[in-house]
Amino acid sequence: MNIKAELPEGDIGQLLRGLNRKNGKNRKGRKEHPVADLAARVGGRARVTRRQAVVTGPRIPTGPRIPTGPRDASTTRTWSSRGQSKSSRFVPETERRFDTNVYGVTAIDDFDSGLRRLEEDPDSVILAVHGACRSIRGVAKAGFGVFVSGFAEQFNRSGLVPYLSEQTSDFAELFASLEALRVIHTLIIAGQNISHVIIKTNSEYLVNGVSDLVWIWAGREYTNCSGRPLPNGRPFKYLHEEISLLEREYGMKVSFCQVEKDYNQPAAELAQEALKRV
């Protein structure tokens, strides 16, 4: 809030110049005098009129307008002109990192469906994904694997990343996750009641990206701080949208669980088998 200073009538500049002449001092040889207090009240500027003499608080930098109320799918996030994106639909943040303290670590085979589930949640489904890359005759090739269960092998997936895509293990991990969600859609169509999807991986890159960073990237339209396209931004975008669809339309919880590589061997073997077939 602006507060006008209480100043005497007349022009402050004239008052200051008049006092300087009385003291016989020019600008180079200015001496302290009582009017210094008055000058301090108007910011230390000599040529300030009564109309201009306004005391203001510290300037607050403007930045992105961030919603302060409850987050929901209808909330819009608006970024400043120096931000990295235009107005975009704000997706509510949900907890996607699997918490073993809440859900435990024990999985069981459901012999009726052939799926693997959490011991304490009969409506859960566990899938494992892996991405691999190696040089074949001097050309990089990436393969992916999705392991659902040894009792439901028809749902397992193994293949090569399309040749027009990035041939890296990171891209293959993202592609495998998208394939895993396609399996979930197939199970939904088949009539399975699913409340919790757990995707197991040994990729820290995948878990951190989709659990923590993707909302920041989405707000910048998947560009970096310089406004350039984010590496693997497009697959992260589609993966984020597919997960959000399951969360919003089907009320599912989608969690990503990072494990040691030794605990993800079935999915890794499927990815390696795809590369061996080249």
Give me the secondary-structure topology.
Blueprint: E1 3-4, H1 12-23, H2 35-41, E2 54-55, E3 76-77, E4 88-89, H3 100-103, E5 107-110, E6 115-118, E7 124-136, E8 139-147, E9 157-160, H4 169-189, E10 196-201, H5 204-219, H6 233-249, E11 253-258, H7 265-276
Parallel strand pairs: 7-10, 10-11
Antiparallel strand pairs: 1-2, 3-4, 5-6, 7-8, 8-9
Any overview of this molecule?
The protein folds into two domains: 53 residues, no CATH class; 201 residues, Ribonuclease H-like superfamily/Ribonuclease H (Nucleotidyltransferase, domain 5). The protein is globular. It has seven helices and eleven strands. Helix 4 runs parallel beside helix 6 and helix 5 crosses helix 6. The longest helix is centred in the middle third of the chain and has 21 residues. By secondary structure, the protein is of the alpha+beta class. A hairpin with a 2-residue loop joins strand 7 and strand 8.
> How much helix, percentage-wise, in residues?
25-40%
Number of strands: 11
The fraction of residues in strands falls at 15-25%
For this structure, the quaternary state is single chain
CATH architecture of the largest domain: 2-Layer Sandwich
Broad shape: globular
Count of domains: 2
Distance between the termini: 71 Å
Output the CATH topology of the largest domain: Nucleotidyltransferase, domain 5
- Uncertain stretches of 5 or more adjacent residues: 1-8, 32-88
Please summarize the sheet with the most strands: 5 strands, mixed
Mean pLDDT score, rounded?
79
Order of helices and strands: EHHEEEHEEEEEHEHHEH
Structural class by secondary-structure content: alpha+beta
What is the CATH H-level superfamily of the largest domain?
Answer: Ribonuclease H-like superfamily/Ribonuclease H
Largest beta sheet: strand ordering = 9-8-7-10-11
